[in-house]
Structures are given as structure tokens and as C-alpha cells.
Structure to design on (580 residues):
């Protein structure tokens, strides 16, 4: 049987390189197609070229981000908030958060914050190496940030399994839900929603979606409760990496008579005195981005007791039993909501804040109402911020924003902090995601908005504060080799053809060469001739060259097939030759 020289064995390498389709998935699609829980193209990235896991896991300290922290500022500083998460990702090891979406914060005490995430990469990572996959990829996680005199320490909490040994592939479990049966395999998704701390307990909502790709099929909501003291203790631990196992309370699943998905609760929580307003969403058709807004209210002390909830039934009325719940917005209101939005009280009105609902929109908007139960006025909406780095084109590197949320834990009496998620829909010719090249586009971003912006008349001089984009140029290096994944079935551009193959035979061997078909295209080589069947690849190459040895004398036909990251094949080229 022929052997290869200077190429990689197909079976082993493709197992390492196999990535997950839409790992940081856009769930629910607040942005029109997928607004909600995030995207993220979380693909298995080769561990080769990335730093190994620490050799002594038991002595590895938590990551410390030095310098002046965002928490130490007299007013919130969005640039400092951006920089903290970039620094944490850049220094992440095999039990550390390295990037993710669905970001939201809950204050534990004066020096600690619990940050919750949905789809999450585990480290190592870096701005020039992308994101590794040494310790798996989870659909939810949390990070405890502790402010110290030297800066902030960050401790990531998962459901366990993040580190299995130095340089070994892990299979981290999410905080809520089971891990995949095999690293990188499919699993059900529990994506986080809003939460709060009440009476020493952190109450957090998670919505469950079945395993699979778009359209994501939701099944219902669970409430997770965490003792705030336990989270705080984990954040002050002497080792990095921790395990969180919250108590889970499933809520009864209910689908309105018109059909579609069940009502998903906890998209955002609004606390007014001792009452909590719990907002939910429902999709009459999960394949169509049209979410209806629902509302319940409950005393904060009974938030986890579903029997105590009362549901908005319209015209300012409330009733027990979610079967009586009715949509907040009247028919034809024109307001489409995602799972990633917030409702705040400012300027004597209530404001629904969310990212723009058109795919690729760079806007964060706010819509007013006179009461928590709306209706929220689309015509009176205000643009809070327009991110100049967002857009579904090569100039913006196909970046999208989604899940813009108010962050009360970071805000002050004068300034509102809003977080949002950024990702890129860019893929190479070979359908390799941006996260292979840099971690910069899967980090949370922050803006600040003066509360004066929510007054009765908008002040044109009040503008949102933001940090610099700081995205390393990736697409600009070779724009012809990058594409918008959303434009193609299966999220991949067509695999280009190998246009020609040349053969240089010699005694017992042949060297094949061909022009490169495109960035990140791999090649399978098939050989038919004496002792060669022709239907099993004899070589797998990442470059346009392969040497095959151990050949018997005789006539041969070689075929070179281009394949992308998913092993989808393109048009092949053939060459015949004779081995003396």
C-alpha cells in the first residue's frame, strides 16, 4: 500500500480539526434571523499552535488582570470594561473563560460580580491564535470577578471537566445541563437569561433548547438558584477554575392555543420596590423571527414560587395561571423583540432596550412606555448607540451585534451601562471561522449612556460612551478569501475546484502538485493503479503538494479532491502517470 510523505493522515487530523457548527449559536434571532442567545461559530480549533494546559493544575492561581479596573472608576468606563475581558481571554488557560455571548452581571457584594454567559469558549486563546478547544465548549458558564488592590481576579465556573490534564482535550460541562457525550458533540442547550440577587440567593433564568441547529427548538424554562456566598467564596479561591452546581426549578411549559413555541420566561427582570416583573417571549413559528412579548409579576421573595406569579392579561389586568397570559404589545405594533433585551425605569417612563432587529444592524435602540406592561411605542423609539465597526460586509469583517442588555450591577445614578455581544459571520473559502484566527470578536462590549438621554426630550449633545473597537484586521489581509456565512446553505461558500494536477513520477514513488484552490482548503488524494483501489484516499494534504511512496511499477491515475473544514468536497482534477 502506498504511503505519504510530507502530508497529514486524514483520520487523525480531521478528528482534531472538526468544529461545531454555530457553536456560539445565535439562538432565537433577535437580529431578525437569529436574535438571541448568540452565535458564535464555536468550532473545534486545532490544539496545535496553542499554548498547552498548565503543567500543575493544582497550583495554577486565578488570572489577575492588573492595573486600574473598571470597578475602581468613579463612573463606568466602557473602555476599561472591554479591556478587562480582552485581557482575561488573552491570559486564559484550560479552565478559563476565553470568549462567549449572553453576557450579564449580578452583584454579589461590594467587591465581587458574578458574570453569566451563554455559549462559552474555554481557553487558551489569544488575539493572534484564536480560540483553542483543549477543554471543550459549553452552552453556559459563569465567571466571578473579584476586585483587589492590584486589579481584578477572574475565576470561571463550569459544571466540571474543563481540565483533564496538561494539553489534553477536556469535555467541560455547562453550569446548567449535561455535557456532550463526546467533546464537541451535540447536546441540549440551556442558554442564560436575566437574573438578580434576593436574600443572599442569586436567581437566574435559563431557557432550554433541543440539540440541533437552526431553527432552534425551545422546550421551556428552568430557574437556577446559587447561594451568593458560595459564588463569592469560589471567586476568592486560590486555584483557578471552579465547579458550580445550582439548584434547578423547572417551570411548567405552556404553549398558547395558536401554537408555536412555549412561552420562555426570564428574558429580562424589572424590580420595582418589592415586585419583580418577569418578561417572557413566545414564537408562534420557531422558524420565523417574530417573538411576542409576555409579562408576569411576583413579590421578589416568591420569585421561585411559580404558583405566586400573576400574569398580564391585557388592559392593566392580572390573573393566576399562565394560560391566561396575553401578549403585551397590541397586534400590529411593529415591535419585534429578542431574548436579549432589557426593560429599565428612567425619566419617569419604562424603556425596552435592545439591539437592532435587522441582521447586521449596528444600532442599540430604546422604546418607551408609561407602564411596565407597555405598550412600548415604536414611533417614539430612540437610537442610543451606533457601532461603527458592525456590518455584514468585508469592510466590517462581517461583524454582527446582538443581545444588548442593561447592566444595573455596573450602572450608577447618572449613567446606564449596556453590554452587547459581537461576533463575525466571516468564514474563509474553506469555511473556517474568524475564531480560528483571533479571539477579539467573541468578547463582550460595553457602552455607557447618560440617564439624561431618557428625559422627555432627547438631548442631541448627550452621546453614548464606548471604547475603541480594537479588532485586529483579519479579512482585510485577503478579502477575496472571506465570505458571509449567512449567504450560503450550510453556512459555507461552495468549495472551489482543483483546476489541474501535475505528476513527477520516479522509482517507487510520485510527487503530485496542484495550484491552491483557496484559503483553508484541504485536499484528498486518490490513486488507482497496481495495488491501489482508487476509492480510499492515500494522502491528505493542506498544501498543493504530496509525495506518495511504496508504489509498484505500472500505470496510475491520481485524483485530487478539494475539501473544506466540514470535509465537503469540490470539483476534482486528475492526472495519469507511469511509475518505472
Amino acid at each position: 500500500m502506498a504511503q505519504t510523505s510530507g502530508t497529514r493522515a486524514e483520520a487523525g487530523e480531521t478528528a482534531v480539526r472538526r468544529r461545531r457548527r454555530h457553536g456560539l449559536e445565535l439562538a432565537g434571532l433577535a437580529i431578525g434571523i437569529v436574535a438571541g442567545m448568540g452565535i458564535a461559530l464555536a468550532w473545534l480549533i486545532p490544539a496545535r499552535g496553542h499554548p498547552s494546559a498548565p503543567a500543575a493544575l493544582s497550583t495554577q492561581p486565578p488570572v489577575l488582570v492588573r492595573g486600574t479596573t473598571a470597578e475602581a472608576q468613579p463612573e463606568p468606563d466602557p473602555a476599561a470594561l472591554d479591556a478587562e475581558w480582552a485581557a482575561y481571554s488573552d491570559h486564559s488557560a484550560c479552565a478559563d473563560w476565553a470568549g462567549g455571548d449572553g453576557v450579564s452581571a449580578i452583584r454579589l457584594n461590594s467587591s465581587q460580580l458574578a458574570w453569566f454567559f451563554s455559549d462559552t469558549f474555554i481557553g487558551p486563546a489569544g488575539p493572534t491564535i484564536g480560540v483553542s478547544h483543549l477543554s471543550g465548549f459549553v452552552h453556559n458558564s459563569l465567571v466571578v470577578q473579584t476586585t483587589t488592590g492590584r486589579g481584578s481576579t477572574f475565576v470561571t465556573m463550569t459544571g466540571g471537566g474543563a481540565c483533564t490534564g496538561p494539553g489534553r482535550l477536556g469535555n467541560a460541562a455547562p453550569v446548567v445541563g449535561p455535557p456532550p457525550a463526546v467533546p464537541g458533540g451535540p447536546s441540549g442547550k440551556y442558554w442564560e437569561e436575566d437574573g438578580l440577587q434576593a436574600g443572599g440567593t442569586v436567581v437566574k433564568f435559563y431557557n432550554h433548547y433541543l440539540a440541533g441547529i437552526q431553527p432552534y427548538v425551545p422546550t421551556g424554562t428552568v430557574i437556577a438558584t446559587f447561594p451568593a456566598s458560595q459564588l463569592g467564596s469560589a471567586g476568592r479561591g486560590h486555584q483557578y477554575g471552579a465547579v458550580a452546581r445550582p439548584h434547578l426549578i423547572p417551570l411548567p411549559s405552556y404553549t398558547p392555543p395558536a401554537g408555536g413555541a412555549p412561552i420562555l420566561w426570564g428574558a429580562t427582570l424589572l424590580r420595582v420596590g418589592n415586585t419583580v416583573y418577569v418578561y417572557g417571549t413566545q414564537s408562534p413559528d420557531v422558524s420565523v423571527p417574530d417573538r411576542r412579548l409576555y409579562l408576569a409579576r411576583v413579590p421578589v421573595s416568591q420569585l421561585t414560587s411559580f404558583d405566586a406569579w400573576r400574569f398580564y392579561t391585557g388592559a392593566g389586568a392580572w390573573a393566576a395561571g399562565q394560560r391566561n397570559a396575553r401578549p403585551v404589545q397590541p397586534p400590529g405594533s411593529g415591535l419585534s423583540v429578542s431574548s436579549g433585551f432589557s426593560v429599565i425605569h428612567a425619566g419617569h417612563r419604562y424603556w425596552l432596550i435592545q439591539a437592532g432587529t435587522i441582521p447586521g444592524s449596528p444600532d442599540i435602540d430604546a422604546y418607551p412606555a408609561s407602564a411596565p406592561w407597555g405598550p412600548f411605542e415604536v414611533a417614539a423609539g430612540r437610537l442610543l448607540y451606533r457601532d461603527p465597526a458592525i456590518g455584514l460586509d468585508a469592510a466590517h469583517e462581517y461583524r454582527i451585534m446582538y443581545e444588548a442588555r442593561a447592566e444595573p450591577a455596573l450602572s450608577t445614578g447618572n449613567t446606564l451601562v449596556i453590554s452587547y455581544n459581537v461576533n463575525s459571520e466571516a468564514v474563509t473559502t474553506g469555511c473556517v471561522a474568524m475564531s480560528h484566527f483571533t479571539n477579539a470578536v467573541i468578547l463582550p462590549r460595553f457602552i455607557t449612556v447618560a440617564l439624561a438621554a431618557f428625559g422627555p426630550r432627547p438631548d442631541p449633545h448627550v452621546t453614548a460612551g464606548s471604547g475603541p473597537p480594537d479588532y485586529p484586521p483579519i479579512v482585510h489581509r485577503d478579502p477575496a478569501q472571506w465570505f458571509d456565512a449567512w449567504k450560503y446553505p450550510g453556512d459555507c461558500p461552495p468549495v472551489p475546484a482543483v483546476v489541474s494536477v501535475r505528476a513527477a513520477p520516479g522509482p517507487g514513488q510520485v510527487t503530485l502538485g496542484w495550484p491552491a484552490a483557496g484559503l483553508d482548503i484541504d485536499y484528498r488524494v486518490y490513486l488507482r493503479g497496481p495495488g491501489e483501489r482508487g476509492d480510499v484516499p492515500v494522502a491528505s494534504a493542506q498544501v498543493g503538494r504530496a509525495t506518495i511512496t511504496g508504489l509498484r511499477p505500472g500505470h496510475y491515475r491520481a485524483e485530487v479532491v478539494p475539501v473544506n473544514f466540514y470535509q465537503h468536497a469540490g470539483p476534482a482534477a486528475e492526472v495519469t502517470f507511469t511509475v518505472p
Observations:
- The longest strand covers residues 189-198.
- Confidence is low (pLDDT under 50) at residues 4-58.
- Residues 78-90 form the longest helix (13 residues).
